[in-house]
Amino acid sequence: MNIKQGIRKIAKRIYSLLPVPYKAKKRMSYFVKRNFFRDYTGEGIIDIYSNSYKLSQINKKIKRVSVIIPNYNYAEFIVERIDSVLLQTYPIHELIIVDDCSKDNSVEVIEAHLEKLGNPSNVRFIINEKNSGNVFAQWQYGFEHASGEYVWIAEADDSCHPRFLESVMGGFEDEEVVISYCESLTMNEYNQVLMKDLRPWIDIYKTGKWDKSYIADGIDEITSTLCINNTIANASSAVFKNGDYHEILEVSKNYRLAGDWYAYMRMFELGRVAYLDESLNYHRMQEKSVTLSIHKDLEFNEICRVQDYALNNYPIEEVVKQRVLERRERERVRFGL
């Protein structure tokens, strides 16, 4: 750890102990980030509490949306995540927060914040007695206990624009849509924007497909692009039509990194997919990411496993198969394997 990192760590600790309201602390934090983090070269600071976000008037019928926040050791971000859900312009049916035996003070932070909010009647806080060991076990719990017709899995360290749900739910005006998702921007742990969108991650062949919103048949989406790479770059950006996905998620548990990619693929079999080109989801990338700790050979093998599933189970044209294999070779070279 260098001197600058040490100072930041101490400052964050002092900040967390300040006896002032959370919103005031966040505004203090934004001021410090703008004026003292001169090494930052991104494009702005995300502030979901900003008065610049104007509420929309929703004239269409409200669908029942259950929101699941699976949390494990995200005490630092969980308050903003909860608020980002409750500040949505589109009313939610229920919010279920599932803590998976966090080792930090997440439980205390969540309980205190819910009490501050008056313990809303449509919010449930579940504390697991034993760590599930897998995020897809939390997804299963969410789908099985959600009473809404639609489910949004809002990862605990991410955030979003207040119009996220209002906008993404528009995709379900097509009743055959099973997943509706939007573009995401990337921010760091200080809410500094690193990338305005994740198109460089998903549009690896620079097709321009994701430059405009669209609705597509799920099988067509698999056989044209999802068989090559995971085109839903962040789970928080997606809302799902509720259904029985237990067996799909059982298989997803066998992956460390690509379980979501596999799950999307199987869910796409059930209908259509809607994509919105606005970056209304805020994906957080931290300095210490779980992804960075995974061995390269394991990541490469999981990419091959999902691709092989697609090649063996869907009618993929030869030109697309070549892109699948080309992407695989790119990754093999990148990982030095």
Distance between the termini: 30 Å
Helix content: 25-40%
Write the H/E string, N to C: HHEHEHEHEEHEEHEHEHHEHH
Structural class: alpha/beta
Question: How would a crystallographer describe the biggest sheet?
Answer: 10 strands, mixed
Specify the CATH architecture of the domain at 65-291.
Alpha-Beta Complex
Give me the Rg, rounded.
20 Å
Mean pLDDT: 88
Task: List low-confidence stretches.
Answer: 33-42, 289-293
- CATH class division of the domain at 65-291: Alpha Beta
Number of helices in the DSSP assignment: 12
**Percentage beta strand:** 15-25%
Tell me how many strands there are.
10
Q: What name does the CATH topology of the domain at 65-291 carry?
A: Spore Coat Polysaccharide Biosynthesis Protein SpsA, Chain A
Name the CATH superfamily classification of the domain at 65-291: Spore Coat Polysaccharide Biosynthesis Protein SpsA, Chain A
Report the principal-axis shape. globular
Textual characterization of the structure:
- The longest helix is centred in the last third of the chain and has 18 residues, at 296-313.
- Helix 3 (75-86) runs parallel beside helix 4 (106-116) and helix 8 (218-226) runs antiparallel to helix 10.
- The chain has helices at residues 3-17, 22-36, 75-86, 106-116, 135-145, 164-168, 199-202, 218-226, 246-252, 259-268, 296-313, 318-334, and strands spanning 65-71, 94-99, 123-127, 150-153, 159-160, 177-187, 193-195, 214-217, 238-241, 272-284.
- It is built from twelve helices and ten strands.
- It has a domain at 65-291: Spore Coat Polysaccharide Biosynthesis Protein SpsA, Chain A (Alpha-Beta Complex), CATH 3.90.550.
- By secondary structure, the chain is an alpha/beta fold.
